Amino acid sequence: MPSSAPCYSHYALLVLSPLHLPFGSSSFPSPSLFLSTFSSILSVLLDLFKILMSTLSSPSHSFTIHFHLWTPEQMFKASCVLKLASVNTDFAFSLYRELVLKNPNKNILFSPFSISAALAILSLGASSNTLEEILEGLKFNLTETPEANIHRGFGHLLHTLSQPGDQINISIGSMMFVEKRLQILAEFKEKARALYQSEVSMTDFQQPDEAKKLINDYVRKQTQQKIKELMSELDECTVMVLVNYIYFKGKWNTSFDPEDTFESEFHLGNNRSVKVPMMHIEDLTTPYFQDEDLSCSVVELKYIGNASALFILPDEGRMQQVEASLQPETLRKWKDSLRPRMIDDLYMPKFSISTDYSLEKILPQLGIREVFSKEADLSRITGAKDLIVSQVVHKAVLDVAETGTEAAAATGVKFTLRSAILDPFILSFDRPFLMIIFDTNTQTLLFLAKITNPKRG
Question: Which keywords has UniProt assigned to this entry (predicted)?
Fold first, then answer.
C-alpha cells in the first residue's frame, strides 16, 4: 500500500441485545412477518458487509475496526467513580449548609472534591472510631462500601480527572510536609502515593517561618499563583501538614463579548445594591430548566471540553428554600430536566471571589470530631497514637469573566439599539445565585459557590 494512502481508524462499541418485536402473549408472529423482519435485518447486514469489503479492497485506503468490550476491572472502576461522585455531592451539600450557617450573607466558595480527597488521605492513617468518623463524615456507608473500595475509587477518579485536556486545565494533587525527625510508616507513604499520587516532603518545622514559606511557595506554584498564602501561621508544635490543591481553568463554549460588558446593579436584598461589571450575551441557546417546585431557574453554561457550570437563580426571597432542598436527588433532577432553550438576553456578573475556611471548627458538625481531640487514633501514620489534627485550612479562588473562569478583559458602558422581540426571554443574574462547576465525564463536583455579593472579593 502506498505510504501516502489515507488511513481510517474506526472505533465501534458493539452491543448485542435481544430482538424485541411487537408480539403479544396471545399472538405468535406469523411466518410472513417473521420472514419479512429477518429479511430486512439480513439486507442491512449485507449492505454493511459490502461497504466494508469495498473499503478493504481499495488500494488507497486502510480500514481498521476496533471492538471494545469492558473488562470486569473497567466496569468496577466506572461504578466506583460514579458512586464516589454521588457520595461527594452529598458531602458537598452537607458542608455547604454548615458553611452558610457560619457565614450568613457572605459569598461561599469551596472545592468539595479537594476537601474530601485530603480527608480520605488522612483516613489512610486512621484507625478504629477515628477512621469511621472520617469516612462516615464524608457520607460513605461503611456497611455497603469497604474502606479499600473507597480508596480505590478515589484513585480511579484522580487518575481520570488528571488526564490532560486540550481546553480544560485541571490540576489536582497532594503533598505531605512531614517533620524531618518524625518517622512515617512506609505502608502509609506507599498507599498515599499509589492511591492519591501524594508525595512526602521532609520539612524542618523547628524553623516555622521557613516551613511556612516552603508550603506556601509550593501551593502558589501548583495553583498558578491564584492562592498565594495557604498557611498564615505555623508553630513549632506542628509535625505534619497535608496539602491538597485543585486548579481549574476553562473557556466558555460560547464566550461573552467584552465590549458588551457594562456597569449594572446587583441587588443584595433589603433594598441594597452594588454596581458590578455585568456581562451580556444575546440569542444564546443553552440547556435550561425552570423548577416550579423550588421556584428557581437553572442554566448550564458549558466549557470547551469535559466541564460545565450550573447557575441556579432562585426567585426573589427563595434562596433559603433552594438551599434547604440541596440534595444529590435535586441536582440529578436539575440535570435530567435541562432542555435547550433560546435565551434572548442573558446577563451574568463578572466577578472574582476568594474564601478562607478553618474547617476544624466546621467538620465536627458533620460527625468528624475525634481526629481533633486527644482520643485521635492516627496510628497508621506513625505506629503510635501520638498525632492529632490541629488545623484544616481550605482556601479557594474563583474568577468568572467573558472568556471563562479566569480572564482579564476591558469593561465599559455601552448603549445599543436592537430590533424589538415579541415576549423576549430575559434571564438576569442580578441577585444572589448558586454556581456548581462539575466534570461531565465523572459528574464530580469540582467547585460549589454562592454569590451573594460579586463586589466582595
Answer: Protease inhibitor, Serine protease inhibitor
